[in-house]
Amino acid sequence: MFALLIAFLIGSSPLAPPCELSEEEKEKIVASAEFARFFDRASRVVERALCEDSDIFLDYTGGDKEEGEGEKDTGAKLSLNRTFYDEKWSKHRTVTSMDWSTQFPELLMASYNQNEDAGHEPEGVVLVWNQRFKKTTPEYVFHCQSGVMSATFATFHPNLVIGGTYSGQIVVWDNRLNKRTPVQRSPLSASAHTHPVYCVNVVGSQNAHNLVSVSTDGKFCTWSLDMLSQPQESMELQHKQAKAVAATCMCFPYGDVNNFVVGSEEGAVYTACRHGSKPGVLDMFEGHMSPVTGIDCHVAQGQVDFSYLFLTSSFDWTVKLWSLKENRPLYSFEDNGDYVYDVQWSPTHPALFGTVDGMGKLDLWNLNTDTEVPLASVTIEESTALNHLRWSQSGHQIAAGDDMGKIHVYDVGEHVATPKSDEWSKLVHTLQDLKNNKVDAEEALISTPIR
Fold it and tell me: Region 393-399: what's the mean pLDDT?
């Protein structure tokens, strides 16, 4: 095998008689960039094969399973598929964000903050995990000298990974290079972020897109991935001359690249826009009593457009459902007994969403089924807090990251994940019922005599 490789690298035919290379020639080949690329690629393939029980060409449709083997969990609403954890890179680190690749749906990226027990290690880490194979090590390891608070795959540049750091820097890694440190990074300057960056996102189309970021310093920055030396635009998020909005999370409604919503440290939610006659904060939504930890706009496409709906989670132990058309919550979900750290809509089911909390509980809610209690729940046994979640693109898996560096990937039951054809019309009626109940409660409160 090595002889074939050497022959390939020096350009001779593998069928020619082998020639003895000098030590100097061998060292030159081993030190070459071509050999490094080959060895990196080959080691990944071999590692995948070694970690498989038998067949690395596993049929994911279940066609190769013995009769009855694939039927054991078909009725389960949530079943653990696997856990991602690396002793060196995950230990004593908190999962701060996750993102599934749009080009390679089996790849799940997670960012991690500092391991305080290992001062000599990089503070920020990003690991790319491969769901397709059984190997227990990450596909890629990236790191930098500040805790990574948010990270995303660059939507139109699948080889790039973007991170927002605790120091306020934006960093970019490239998996085509045999390099674990950033290939680009923004400077630490007053023109960019000076506080932790809790959200980075790529918005736009293939031919016209930008990286956008928000921070607790109250700035919204727009960047070009070709140049991070300074933001293309920087905008202060302020509401009616008040102090800057300490943004903790951000989301753009489906199909919109101008308008967005942000959650803040003080508990308020704001709508804002990038361009127009009055760029910046437009309106304030009050409802939470503590910092907003997660925000997500409705994305499931169907017969009815629900892109005006969004969800928020908070340290006040609640999840709230909002409409962009009203600045008060449509409904408040109050089943949790601890901080709710994240919330996200299903990408395929209009009434389904997930939440995670400080008690290690992952809940799935279906608005069309019940608004008082979750449809399905599972609690992590290690008594750790779950602080981030992400649905896969198919809506059939959901990943939950905890404060000990583990990522738990759950299969969502077919009957839970797949919407029936009438789910969109049902949600219209559900929303109307919620509004009617809200009006009745407010009227009852007004008519109640004060004693």
Answer: 96
